[in-house]
Amino acid sequence: MNLSIAYLGPQGTYSEFAASTYARWLQQHHQTDTARQAYPSIAQVLRAVAQAEVDICVVPVENSIGGGVTTTLDMLWELDMLQIQRALTLPIEHAFLSQADRLQVVSTVYSHPQALTQCQKWLETHLPEVTLIATNSTTEALQHLDADPTVGAISSAWAAQIYGLPVLAHPINDHSDNCTRFWVLSRESSQSGDYTSLAFSLPTNDAGALLKPLQHLALAKINMSRIESRPTKRSLGDYLFFIDIEAGLDSPHTRAALDAMGGCTETLKLFGSYTLLPMEEVLAQTSTPKYL
Ligand SMILES: O=C(O)C(=O)Cc1ccccc1
């Protein structure tokens, strides 16, 4: 069987590293061959799966410093048909790449907004005057770095190798324990696993409106491991709530709690149940760096 996997490109992104880690795990545990396909934005990666151009995708969803990857959450709600098959967490170390001979000559820095956030203090300390430019991925600007020594980019040491670019500083993330969680998504229904992710909108915006659906989880003694709000984009102050619970959809107990939740939400979307890929084991078996 040959499975096509979409990821955020171009070559050398953290998403590509996550996708290739997952591909290797599939080969080792399920003898499944894979073919990877890069797309220029997270939105296009997710659409490629929804429109059946590819079988699955691997996308970033949350970072320990920068929080939720908003495009992933917004698109998941919008597309309405993608299901989470697995989650994997990667430790991430950022590097500063440039052809400049010293930091003082750099005037512009490119990177993905998540990477700019994760290195905010380092940038304020070492490059306080620079213009920061957000890109679709940490590697989008790398091919242009050769031409201009006044520009730099935040990417991985792995990407520096791929593009043959000098690393001026590494690691530069503000917190050493910097991790990003990725989801493997497909169109296939996923009903079993240790975690379930879902999102809902509320029918009213009044006192206790959020408490009502959450109370059903508390009553069922189901632990919530994440909650995050995103604007509904209908009106200011109107939110969607994305939550992860530590329970699988294949349990009647979980189903009953979610059915009760459905009674006090406007729209409730289930994104599936899944387990975490055992990353210690997976990364130990590879020759690729533990830290990127
Ligand atoms: O741009 C990348 O390399 C990505 O894969 C997105 C991202 C950016 C920063 C941290 C983790 C993932």
From TrEMBL:
<dbReference type="InterPro" id="IPR018528">
    <property type="entry name" value="Preph_deHydtase_CS"/>
</dbReference>
<comment type="pathway">
    <text>Amino-acid biosynthesis; L-phenylalanine biosynthesis; phenylpyruvate from prephenate: step 1/1.</text>
</comment>
<keyword id="KW-0028">Amino-acid biosynthesis</keyword>
<dbReference type="InterPro" id="IPR002912">
    <property type="entry name" value="ACT_dom"/>
</dbReference>
<dbReference type="GO" id="GO:0009094">
    <property type="term" value="P:L-phenylalanine biosynthetic process"/>
</dbReference>
<dbReference type="InterPro" id="IPR045865">
    <property type="entry name" value="ACT-like_dom_sf"/>
</dbReference>
<keyword id="KW-0584">Phenylalanine biosynthesis</keyword>
<protein>
    <recommendedName>
        <fullName>Prephenate dehydratase</fullName>
        <ecNumber>4.2.1.51</ecNumber>
    </recommendedName>
</protein>
<feature type="domain" description="Prephenate dehydratase">
    <location>
        <begin position="4"/>
        <end position="187"/>
    </location>
</feature>
<dbReference type="InterPro" id="IPR008242">
    <property type="entry name" value="Chor_mutase/pphenate_deHydtase"/>
</dbReference>
<dbReference type="GO" id="GO:0005737">
    <property type="term" value="C:cytoplasm"/>
</dbReference>
<dbReference type="InterPro" id="IPR001086">
    <property type="entry name" value="Preph_deHydtase"/>
</dbReference>
<keyword id="KW-0057">Aromatic amino acid biosynthesis</keyword>
<dbReference type="Pfam" id="PF00800">
    <property type="entry name" value="PDT"/>
</dbReference>
<keyword id="KW-0456">Lyase</keyword>
<dbReference type="GO" id="GO:0004664">
    <property type="term" value="F:prephenate dehydratase activity"/>
</dbReference>
<feature type="site" description="Essential for prephenate dehydratase activity">
    <location>
        <position position="180"/>
    </location>
</feature>
<feature type="domain" description="ACT">
    <location>
        <begin position="198"/>
        <end position="275"/>
    </location>
</feature>
